Task: inverse folding
């Protein structure tokens, strides 16, 4: 069984509200704007956030020749969490994690920003999001990134008693053929984190149902 070392690339907490404000948009007035203006604001804000995520990836990998550029990552695993004292109330414990996914990271995160992060950020009044990212480039282990996503989802369920809030499915129904070392469990750790708010959508909230993954 192959052993792979995990070194997460991380962003700082990113506030959609603040990044929109930095390019001249006040999202508090978003609902009063024409839909064409809303679409333009959303597009520009998402583009800015993606550039911040790309810069975080590039700065973490600039000394490593084995890593691809952010837009070229195809076998990636990522975690989306919230911050600033907010957490999701799960069955066993509170966690910042909202979603665990895999694939072409730049496309996947762009899709999440467009499909739910932008609107959820407005609903939660600017709560920041943080992104953890890792890439698997070993050609001898083409399914390693799938195994790692499965590992994270299994460990999350074991620790918190259920799947992350927006995960529809728990990865594949297969055995994990890799071991993972390093700080592989970093996003799951609660040590040193202080939760001032524990949030959970109600049945009347559009975020009550898990995200239907694409």
Result:
């Amino acid at each position: 069984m192959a052993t792979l070392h995990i070194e997460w690339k991380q962003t700082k907490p990113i506030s959609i509200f603040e990044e929109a404000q930095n390019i001249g948009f006040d999202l508090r007035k978003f609902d009063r704007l024409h839909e064409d203006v809303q679409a333009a604001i959303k597009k520009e804000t998402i583009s800015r956030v993606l550039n911040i995520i790309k810069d975080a990836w590039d700065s973490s990998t600039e000394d490593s020749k084995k890593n691809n550029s952010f837009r070229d990552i195809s076998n990636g695993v990522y975690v989306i969490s919230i911050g600033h004292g907010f957490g999701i109330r799960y069955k066993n414990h509170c966690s910042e994690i909202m979603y665990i996914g895999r694939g072409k990271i730049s496309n996947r995160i762009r899709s999440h920003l467009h499909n739910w992060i932008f609107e959820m950020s407005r609903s939660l009044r600017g709560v920041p999001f943080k992104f953890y990212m890792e890439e698997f480039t070993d050609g001898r282990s083409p399914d390693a990134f799938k195994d790692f996503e499965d590992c994270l989802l299994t460990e999350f369920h074991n620790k918190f008693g259920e799947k992350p809030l927006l995960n529809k499915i728990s990865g594949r129904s297969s055995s994990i053929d890799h071991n993972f070392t390093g700080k592989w469990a970093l996003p799951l750790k609660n040590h040193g984190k202080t939760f001032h708010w524990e949030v959970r959508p109600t049945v009347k909230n559009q975020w009550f149902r898990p995200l239907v993954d694409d």
User: Anything to note?
Assistant: The CA atoms of residues 6 and 184 lie 5 Å apart. The helical segments are 16-22, 35-61, 105-123, 144-160. The first strand starts at residue 2 and ends at 6.
